[in-house]
Amino acid sequence: MENTVMYNLVLLAARPPEWTHERFITWWRGDHAELTRRLPGLRSWRHTEIDAALEPRSEGWDGMSVLGFDSPEDLSKALASAEWADAVAQVGDMKGRRIAVMGHEAEMFTA
């Protein structure tokens, strides 16, 4: 049986062309994390450093973040906050790529 746990913002990102993978992950988990942790209503945050793609069409990504909130309304408040504006400003015109999607999490299995 499904158990809805969080409302998540999922970000899949690729580094700027002039950066190494290592530099991007260090920045994401360091300087950028300092701003991200301050988002109002943030309940959880998982980050995956991508080191391999299953197939060619999935190549080209460096990392994925899953930011968990209690509700869509809490995520909306975070996205309207000064803290989010600070994080976006820090990214600036970095020229990396990203996919940003949001939705309800359902825990499907846990061991």
Automatic annotation (TrEMBL):
Residues 17-88 form the EthD domain. It comes from the Bacteria. It holds the Pfam family EthD. SUPFAM superfamilies: Dimeric alpha+beta barrel. This is Uncharacterized protein (TIGR02118 family). The lineage of its organism: Bacteria, Bacillati, Actinomycetota, Actinomycetes, Kitasatosporales.
